[in-house]
Amino acid sequence: MTEDATGGTTTRNETDGQQAEQAGAQAAGQDAQAAQADEQRPEARLEKAVRAAEQALIEFEIAVETFRVEVENFSRLHHQRLGPMYTRLDELDALIAEARAARSGDPEDLRKAYEARAMVMPMPGVEELFHDWLDSEGLSPEAEAMLNEQPVQPPKRVRPSEEARKLYRELARKAHPDLAQEEAERERREEFITRVNAAYGRGDEGLLRELAEEWAAGPVPVESQPSESEELYARLEWLSRRKELLTLAAHDLEESAIGAMLRMAPDDPDRLLEEIAEQLLGQVSEREAELAGLVQ
Fold this sequence. Notes:
- The protein has 296 residues and is mostly helical.
- The chain is built from eleven helices and four strands.
- The termini are far apart.
């Protein structure tokens, strides 16, 4: 025990506790002063702007990539389900034009028949374009079955699931190359994100989970903070240029034929395909009736 200024006694534990409290308060005050000094640095506000711009760009890239995948997948479904119908309409148009030319013998009708037939002439790679709907004999059995409204196996759905979207967003935010400051780290992230994008494009939820585990188990990069104002300004300029390029890419996707169709039915694109298919089947029936009238 020790005697205090009032004549009372103070235990050693109480004295130690008071000293610890004083030391803690002093340390907290020093931390606050250091934080305030850091905030007052000329580069502090610029660094915040860079971080905010980086995060905004990543979110923008995620949105653009997601829309690109939607457009590509919808385009694939569009060709699979509607390609044979468009081909059948072109063939019927050619047959109708040829039947009219055969009846009239008019040079103008002959020219139109020639042009219509040229529209349906086989082209290199057409089988690949229509995803095996066409074979050497013309329409494949599956395409013929669909045109005749017979049951067919629906095309494989490749739109990413909600869980795949969630995994992709998490990986893109964690491993995005724009977060790297060193070239070696940027290359590592770019290689990884390339695999992430490929898995997301296929809607491969299992592979995305494996990639998430791979990233979590990998080395944690040490992020170097810019210390010079010139470097921060250069970083902001690069981010701005990148955003301009993404804006152009997003505009091209939105203005494409498939992108415009997706905007018409963003929540249920499959239903839109069904409506278009019904319209095309109606046009096929009309053309067949017209052809039948010409060749009688």
